[in-house]
Request: fold
Amino acid sequence: MLLPVIVAAAETKCKRENLRFVNFAPALPPGYCQNMPSSLRSWIPAAAADLVLILFFAAIGRDAHARGDIITGAFVTAWPFLAGACVAWLAARVWRAPYAVWHSGISVWIGAVVIGMLLRAVTGQTVVLPFVIVALISLGVFLLGFRVILALILRTSRKRQSKV
Reply:
């Protein structure tokens, strides 16, 4: 019963501050606003960045272990993580706020790792604890990192614009 009141209060606050409100989780804290600009096509660069960063993660791993055939091998290594990221994009509706660290970034990161590891296990690929830890850290740095950097850049540019 309290949830609609909380969501309505958050939406009102966002409208007052000219920010776009995104209701993506039932446990939204009051006043959550999505500060990142989002249009119909803004999800394409975010999805492309996720794809490239997951492929980059796989290529680094293959190169570090001297597995050879880095290009095609990276796709073989990356497909479970890419599938996990795709599932997360759909399940969490990431296209609504593709650059948000909280919810979008976290969802893609955890989805890529958890579903990726499950798919690796089901298909007979190696799933050992050190690899899980490395994947969790590396993909976290990549998939959350670019969103954090983008948020900082946007925040800095907004501060500069407001001072002018």
User: Anything to note?
Assistant: The chain has a mean pLDDT of 81. The longest helix spans residues 129-163.
